[in-house]
Specification:
The chain is mostly helical. The protein has one domain: Lysozyme, CATH 1.10.530.10. The protein contains eight helices and two strands; from the N terminus they run αββααααααα. Strands 1-2 form a two-stranded antiparallel sheet. It starts with a helix and ends in a 7-residue tail after the last helix.
Amino acid sequence: MRLPSIMFCIFLLLFVNASHAQQCGSQAGGAVCAAGNCCSQYGYCGNTAEYCSPSSGCQSQCWSSGAGAPPPPATPTAPSAGGGDISGVISQSVFNDMLKYRDDTRCHAPGFYTYDAFIAAAKSFGDFGTTGDSDTIKREIAAFLGQTSHETTGGWDTAPDGRYAWGYCFLRENTLDSYCNVTQAWSCAPGQKYFGRGPIQISYNYNYGPAGQALGYDLISNPDLVATDSTVSFKTALWFWMTPQGAKPSCHDVMTGKWTPS
């Protein structure tokens, strides 16, 4: 089967199973929330007790200890050795077809999410899009673009080509809350906010800190680098994709079959 057909089918499947209003869990085809957030019993993402407490019906990425306990910080994981050039797997034309409205003036980040930045960022993660056979490789790339498109979608019911064709429309989260968890090991810098930014909408100081440490950037002091440098932005998304979170496996390990349920 040709690459565009494989990627489009997986990409479309990820989206048609997602509900417009509901973001995760059984209401959204089993999707999990980005940046380690919890999925409430009603299918929404958040980090308070109503989302995270098992007694409140939390569906995934829930608190494992008492009420009020935040999720554990991610363990800093350095990118693997370079060499992960995936331009031979996904061409610029396929990338543009899958994300064809990302530069539309009705979106909030025209010109930011470039193919070149994606390819450059992937080279910092040698295992991304290079692990397994051809179908596994294509499936992982398509799943990554599907998940990040879900996080950044800007479509609406009557949008051209439907609401699910508008991935990579948003750059910064609509709410500009601080997302500073003072109980975590990664302290917050004065005046900085850690709301969602970039393809995976990375959020909270306990994700910005480890991501920056692994990638070689001070994202605690300058979190907006994720929204001003396209390559760094994609790197944070790929870091989150490749990094296990606490007892949870990485998305990469799940998609490539390195992890199987017990």
